[in-house]
Amino acid sequence: MNIAILGTGSVGQALAKKLLEKGHNLYIGTRDVENTMKQTESDAFGNSPISFWIKENPAVELLRFKEAVEKGEDLIVFSMNGQYALSCLASVGTDLLHDKILMDISNPLDFSNGFPPSLFINNTDSLGEQIQKAYPNLKVVKTLNTMSNPIMVNPKALKGDHTVFMSGNDDEAKVKVASVLQSFGWEAHNIFDLGDISTARGTEMMLPIWLRLFGKLETPFYNFHVNTLQA
Amino acid sequence: MNIAILGTGSVGQALAKKLLEKGHNLYIGTRDVENTMKQTESDAFGNSPISFWIKENPAVELLRFKEAVEKGEDLIVFSMNGQYALSCLASVGTDLLHDKILMDISNPLDFSNGFPPSLFINNTDSLGEQIQKAYPNLKVVKTLNTMSNPIMVNPKALKGDHTVFMSGNDDEAKVKVASVLQSFGWEAHNIFDLGDISTARGTEMMLPIWLRLFGKLETPFYNFHVNTLQA
């Protein structure tokens, strides 16, 4: 597939590396290509800048958001901080987003009061729903937003079953996203289709417990499993 | 132990039956004893009224909230809808709550716009914290609020591991609550102490995903497990 990845942070990089390994053509979107390629410093969490990886992988194109979506026509992966979702998509424009599938991995995290962050949308709305409402012809599938990026792209890093959720209004889009998840190693019985995009409220609101667990476990290697096995 | 259970609905009844089976003396608190004993109709979910069970178990005393706490001095179980938490505790009074342990199973569910309910407190606050703030000398331990009542009192109803969380400021109170959980069948390694009472934000905010799962699974027999097993 020709895939656009919007976001060059640790989540975007983890997804890019896995999707490249799976043989896809990648068009990575950023706000300012020159500026992104100039960055040589790791981020606050020790993640190296994407410029290094792009230089090592010349087949991968780093482009402005709009151009990335123009070329990555089969799937858009949104992997930025949720606060940039609507401005990023606005710079792509309604016409280009028409009928496309957006795999939305973002969360509405508000770091303005430090760590752990709160949510800037929640309870009676979600970021997934706001994106869907802003672009009614975009097929938004919220997924992977309830775990760390090493688990997203390598579910077998944990022994036993654990769950990835999907929320979205379009069943065909969810089938396509599920096939991408399966290519990462997710077993079909661990991919849980919660229903329409309003169910993204549920998964986005898992971030507070995820963050508290991170504080206690001090490792990103954990995930939630919905245990349904009756004794 | 002498245990006060505040709340006569399905959660209170499930806890009462299990705690009676374990040999505790139970003092069940309600707003209006006469009115509660007069009820003979099942609730909207088909749960029978507590009056039947009280008549069958004359050793269990049904009392007003304050009297129940006076007699159930070793542990208070709060099992009402969260919207009644502060008014119920106000009727008990600060003096009686001094130094007591409150096992808080409630959630801040707002059913005013139908099903699924939203939360009337969340994100930067929690019901657990509001109770703790209102009664600084009460030892609030939020637990069991992320699952259905059949699972709370019978974790072995599910095969394999699944998690019960605890949030609270007082370590001794958490040890006591953990021992009650263990008496229900919870294995120590599945009891997850998240930390202080502010971590109740995390567990209360799991209700939206719990409710969506309930809509999909159509059974109360499931629970979350934090899978930490690295491959």
SSE ordering of chain A: EHEHHEHEHHEEEHEHEHEHHE
What is the CATH domain class of chain A? Answer: Alpha Beta
Helix content of chain A: 25-40%
Q: Which sequence of strands runs across the widest sheet of chain A?
A: 3-2-1-4-5-8-9-10
Biggest interface, chains and residue tallies? A-B, 44 and 44 residues
Rg over C-alpha atoms of chain A, rounded to the nearest angstrom? 17 Å
CATH topology label of chain A: Rossmann fold
What is the distance, rounded to the nearest whole angstrom, between the alpha carbons of the first and last residues of chain A?
43 Å
Q: State the domain count of chain A.
A: 1
Q: Could you describe the largest sheet of chain A, including whether it forms a barrel?
A: 8 strands, mixed
Tell me the quaternary state. homodimer
Strand and helix map with partners:
The structure is a homodimer of 231-residue chains.
Chain A (H helix, E strand, L loop, with lengths): L1 E5 L3 H12 L3 E6 L2 H6 L11 H7 L4 E4 H7 L3 E4 L6 H8 L1 H4 L3 E4 L4 E2 L7 E2 L7 H8 L4 E5 L5 H4 L11 E5 L2 H14 L6 E5 L4 H5 L2 H11 L5 E5 L4
Parallel strand pairs in A: 1-2, 1-4, 2-3, 4-5, 5-8, 9-10
Antiparallel strand pairs in A: 6-7, 8-9
Helix pairs in contact in A: 4-5
